[in-house]
Automatic annotation (TrEMBL):
UniProt xrefs under Pfam families: COX5B
Pathway: Energy metabolism; oxidative phosphorylation
Protein name, as recorded: Cytochrome c oxidase subunit 4, mitochondrial
One GO-annotated biological process of the protein: mitochondrial electron transport, cytochrome c to oxygen
Entry membrane topology: Peripheral membrane protein
Binding site for Zn(2+): 129, 137, 153, 156
Family recorded in the similarity comment: Belongs to the cytochrome c oxidase subunit 5B family.
Phylogenetic classification of the source organism: Eukaryota, Fungi, Dikarya, Ascomycota, Pezizomycotina
Length: 186
């Protein structure tokens, strides 16, 4: 009831004052200010696009830099992507899931003798356990590492084991590698 009277009053006041919409007095294009007489505009160095490599041709981290787009064009994801994003795109183009994003086996409860296996190419792997049977408890996040590859869920007792499938020495590919929490304190 009150809101209708406020709206009606505001409408009457706007009509009584001859309400006019506010319009900019000049175009925004005219508001550019030129400072100084000299133009210090530097053209970017024009470099031609490199070569596209397939997933099988990737050998070192520098191979994961895209060729870039032709000058004056908008780059595609494949031309612009670098690093892990580029690796994922190249893998998807060849039908390979490089990050293995399939869910873990939830058809059984993992035990110490027969754990659920999680493949990992990195030093650490975060795994979410939703219980057995599936979705029987909230997601409990477990941290698996090379130094501590087996973890047990505190809610349901499910045991998950990380199998490392990456390079033997991670520092070879990642010079800025820093050890994980478990590597230092376990």
């Amino acid at each position: 009831m009150f809101s209708r009277s406020v709206i009606a009053t505001a409408r009457r006041a706007a009509v009584a004052q001859g309400f006019k919409p506010v319009v900019a007095r000049r175009a925004f294009s005219a508001s550019v200010v030129a400072r100084g007489g000299h133009s210090h505009h530097h053209e970017p160095e024009v470099t031609g696009p490199g070569t596209l490599k397939s997933l099988s041709e990737i050998k070192v981290a520098s191979d994961l830099v895209g060729p870039g787009a032709q000058p004056g064009t908008v780059p595609t994801d494949l031309e612009q992507a670098t690093g892990l994003e580029r690796l994922e795109i190249l893998g998807k183009m060849e039908g390979i899931d490089v990050f293995n994003m399939k869910p873990l086996d939830a058809s059984r409860l993992g035990t110490m003798e027969d754990p659920i296996i999680a493949l990992s190419a990195g030093e650490e792997h975060y795994v979410g356990c939703t219980g057995f049977p599936a979705d029987s408890h909230v997601t409990m996040w477990l941290t698996l590492s090379r130094s501590r590859p087996i973890e047990r869920c505190t809610e349901c007792g499910n045991v998950i084991k990380m199998e490392y499938i990456g390079a033997e020495d991670a520092r070879m590919f990642y010079p800025s590698y820093s050890p994980s929490f478990h590597d230092i304190y376990d």
